[in-house]
């Protein structure tokens, strides 16, 4: 009797475990389907798009930003890139470029390698405090060994809008979110023997490239029968959100500095003793 009772408890335990696993699989599959159906819509991404677009508009209106990467003497004497510049790409579209990082990095996956690492973001302003496009790019140049390699990774959102517009909507309004399916991830690579015609005068890749990508991935193509793994799609969205937060912080700091500079300049002009005139 005890033996039969033991087998019964074992079967019940295993059945419960398999049931829970089955439920987890169903929940996971539903999460994948819903995420892909919505285009990995995310309220924070919409809010960040809106905030960045408005800050971009304010920063451009305040002015006083360097136009272009600088002349040859400045670039050679400082050996660095300007933190923020404005300009127009080869298609004639205005952009604001932010430096995210500029320095050295190391890799030891196979053997120790050293790299010059440059990370930038291109913001393309749209109408009424929106953005037409946002590009994150990570440029790396190895200088270990007899032949070095250039590689570039890009996150491109062709329509970074704030569909939710949560700040301006009344409480209880229906929430709509941006479909991020068209976001792309690109990878470029070239040996040192290939002239880097895609670089600007400061060694940073331009907003529009004369360079063919080795691979290009669309986040969530609806026509793709075999989409990229769900875990990779989530990772792309996570990385993109993290980069948006960094850009928002940088723009907030630039906007605050520009406003303080303007206020100080105004105060210098109007601060006088009228009785002395």
Explained architecture:
This protein has 277 residues and is of the alpha+beta class. The protein contains 4 helices and 7 strands, in the order H-H-H-E-E-E-E-E-E-E-H. The chain has a 7-stranded antiparallel β-sheet. Helix 2 runs parallel beside helix 4. The longest helix has 41 residues, at 230-270. The termini are far apart.
Can you give me a brief rundown of this structure?
With 277 residues, the chain is of the alpha+beta class. Helix content is 38%, strand content 23%.
The tally of beta strands, per DSSP, is 7
Q: Please tell me how large the radius of gyration is.
A: 26 Å
From the N-terminal CA to the C-terminal CA, the straight-line distance is 112 Å
Could you report the average pLDDT, rounded to the nearest whole number?
Answer: 84
Structural class: alpha+beta
- Provide the succession of SSEs: HHHEEEEEEEH
Oligomeric state of shown chains: single chain
What percent strand?
A: 15-25%
Low-pLDDT sequence parts: 2-12
H/I helix tally:
4
Tell me about the largest β-sheet. 7 strands, antiparallel
Strand order of the largest sheet: 1-2-3-4-5-6-7
Shape: flat
Approximately how much helix is present in the residues? 25-40%
